[in-house]
Every structure is written in C-alpha cells, then in structure tokens.
Amino acid sequence: MDRLFCRVLLSGRNLSRLCWVIFFLFVEAVFPSCQTVPVSAAAGDAPLGEFKAVVVGSLKPGEPFVVAAAGKLPQEPRAAGRMQAALIRGERQLNRGVFFGLGETSSRGPVITAVMAVPSTAGAGPAILRIEAEGRVVHTLEVIIGERFFAAETIAITGAMSDLLTRPDPEKTAQAEQMWAIWARTGEEVFTEGYFIVPVNSTVQTSRFGGRRIYKYPDGRSSSSIHAGVDWRAPTGTPISACAPGRVVLARFRIVTGNTVVVEHMPGVYSLCYHMDRIAVAEGDLVQTGTRLGDAGATGFATGAHLHWEIRVATENTDPASFLGRRILDKEAILAILND
Fold first, then answer.
1. pLDDT tens digit string along 107-136?
2. Cα–Cα distance, 182 to 192 (Å, whole number)
3. HSE of 216, CA atoms in CB hemisphere, 13 A
4. pLDDT(303) > 90
C-alpha cells in the first residue's frame, strides 16, 4: 500500500486515485472489526453517504450513552487511527470514548460506536460532543446534560477501617493503578448486546449509586467520597453471578475491595463485584449471564457482608440500574436513527 501511495503521489496525473488511496487507508484503520463489510464494497459498490453522528440514550449524571456514526468524514484525519469522542463542558473534558465497529451497515456506510458516560459529578446544562480522528476535530454535536440529585449519607468507621483507607501502602497504590489501567483499556470485542441482570438474589439495597458519603473517623476527623456502585445486602456465602456475558479480566484479592472480580462486557464497559468471601472464576474465563463468580462476604473495606456491584464505562462509574431492562447497544435503534 505504501508503494502504491508513493506512485500515485509522484505521478501528479490522477488526483482521484490519490483520494481513493487515502480513503482506503482511513477505512481500514477506523473499521477494523466490520469484517462483514469489505472495504471495496463500502468504498466502490456502495459509496459512503454524508457523515452523520447521533447520541442514543439519556445524558444524565451517572448514566451511559452511545455515540454512533457512519458516512464520509467532512475532513480527512492527518493519519489513520481509531476515532474518539469527547464530552466537553467549557474547557473541561467530562469523558472520552473510543469508537469500535458495530458490525452493522447503515444507508451511510459501516457503523462505528463508542459507549460513554456522563460523570455523576456533572452539572446540568449544555455541553459539546466532539468527534476526533488523530487529534483533529471532524464533527461536533451540541447536547444537553439533564439534572439529577443524589442522596447523602454519613458512615462511622472503626479504627481498623480508618487505617485501611488512610495508611500509605505501596501495594494498595499498585492495585489502584492496575485497576485504572483495566478501566482505561478499550478493546474491540463485544461479548454482549443484551440485557444485564442484578448479580445477587437480594431485595435490599443498603447504599445506592452516587451517594455523597461522609466518613466519620474515631479521632473526630472526616472525609468525603462518592459511592461508585450499589450495595446489596447479602449474607456470607450468597451466590454472586455474572450480570451479563463477558470475559474475566481480574479475579484476585485487593486490600480495599477484598476478593474482587472484574468482567469486560464490551469495549470500555466493565462490571465489578467487591468484598466477596470466595472467588469461583479465574482471569481469562469467559462467562455467561448467571455464571457463578463467587460468594458474598465482607472482605476488604466493609462494615458487614454485602455485595458492592459497580459498572465502569470509559473509566467513569455509572448507575448499574441504567443497564437493567434495556440494551445499551441497541442496534435497531442505532440504525433507525442513522438511516433517518
């Protein structure tokens, strides 16, 4: 391909051929997982239509949404590479997602999608969704972030729990860095397009998503945090199941979260189960909805036996309830909007 590019560039006689070469390079990089749509067919037999990008889902703090796009870019990127979407408020970037192939073709061409989230700390109001290719902005959308309120709670902790949170520990730091590296990893495998389920048989939530927490220490000091998941009351030994199909990317003991299992469900989307008494899977295992991950417990930073269930999207914590009763990757809805 490099030699062909050079010959066309040096000849100077056929500008259209040069444009097609640039186009092929771009499509091969941006749509690597759309194997059912040959590049030649997308570019030749069925030319790309006008570029269109849409948002599917609710833009509220702590909730996931999907950005879908298809068509010929309004301007070519400087170099081939995966496209990204950034949610911007003023000078602040709220979230960033990486596009991957949906495996579907709209009337405008192959569809790419990025699963993103609005941070639970984001305020209501206008924002910009910026689509980028190799650092160049190729498209923008004006969006509105809705309003949402979260409850506050105060938690009294023991001296031992205080040490667990505040005492410097190189191993704890290394474990936190490893977890962030997992959340930031965006592959291209989609393990599920269906519905998620609650991973434990419990009807009692002891702490809801997004709660503004104040920790009261024995010495009178206090600190604050935001609850990144949902806590379900569950006696020690209660089965914990996979909330959706995926691949286990972490299954080990961590100082703060205790026995922990992290499952990758789609690019940039991970579910986490904390404080388990026992782990029943290994890293690399493929699981289905309902596969037993282990048993509930009170390991790590926990005041009693329960399950902390969390879902991260493009590193942001999201409300697990947003994944129940609806498909995040709703192909029919995405295609209907793009084809409109």
1. 999 999 999 999 999 999 999 999 998 878
2. 18
3. 5
4. no
Kindly tell me the burial class for residue 135, based on how many C-beta atoms sit within 10 Å of its own C-beta (0-12, 13-18, 19 or more). Answer: exposed
Task: Compute the distance between CA of residue 275 and CA of residue 293 in angstroms, rounded to an integer.
Answer: 12
Residues 6 and 143 in one domain: yes
Is residue 47 situated within a structural domain? Answer: yes
Domain that holds residue 251: 173-207+229-323
Alpha helices by DSSP H, 1-85: 2-11, 15-30, 39-40
Q: Identify whether the C-beta of residue 338 lies closer than 8 Å to the C-beta of residue 332.
A: no
For the residues 245-274, what does the mean pLDDT come to?
Answer: 97
Q: What are the tens digits of pLDDT across the range 155-181?
A: 887 777 767 767 788 999 999 999 999
* Number of Cβ atoms within 10 Å of the Cβ of 93: 11
Task: Look at residue 216 and tell me if it is in a domain.
Answer: no
HEC readout, 67-122: EEEECECCCCCCCCCCEEEEEEECCEEEEEEECEEEEEEECCEEEEEEEEECCCCC
Residues above pLDDT 90, as percent of the chain: 64
pTM score = 0.82
